[in-house]
Design a protein that fits this description.
Helix content is 20%, strand content 39%. By secondary structure, the protein is α+β, with helices and mostly antiparallel strands. The chain has a single domain, classed as Alpha-Beta Complex (Nucleoside Triphosphate Pyrophosphohydrolase).
Length: 202
Amino acid sequence: MNLTDVKAKYKNYTPKNATNPTKVAVMILLATENDKTYVLFEKRSNIVSQPGDISFVGGHIEDGETAEAAAIREATEELNIKKENVKIISESDYFITINNRQMNSFLAELVDIKISEIKPNEEVEKLIAIPLDALLNAEKQTYVSEFGKKSEDDFPYHLIQGQKNYKFAKMKEYTYFYTLDETVIWGFTAKILSAFLDNLKK
């Protein structure tokens, strides 16, 4: 292969995430009733992963599907509502998790249906509506985990400078917790929530 071949390969090339992450879309769903705005969360049921956790509506992005379409589809499936009941306000922030998931988030409004009228599917134990003002005033607890060098016996230390004495960079993982009465929001749901609340406070 020569330079001409390389140029041909990269002609009209579209950059991508080379780590090929698993892609997920979630929805920060807002509902207003009696002049009060709520953020909707789900308590996950025992038939799905991470049972009992509090999360936003969302799930995997299917092949050929946009992140926005996936967020809307997941909302209609999990909440048993119509597409017309969800109005996208804006795409929000996205995140890359430590286990190589790309999480896209969308801000949306619940329309033409009351919170009490929503009957979620079997993946959802219950729907939780928390006043936006309560979330804005809630204390965020932050915990830091550090990850150090490789420790596996079969890691090829002999191929790198310094071998086992190489100064591997330490990675930090920040885990957030919000506690409101008996509801605990943590993990990536809390990270997405934190970014959303920070945007509102700016």
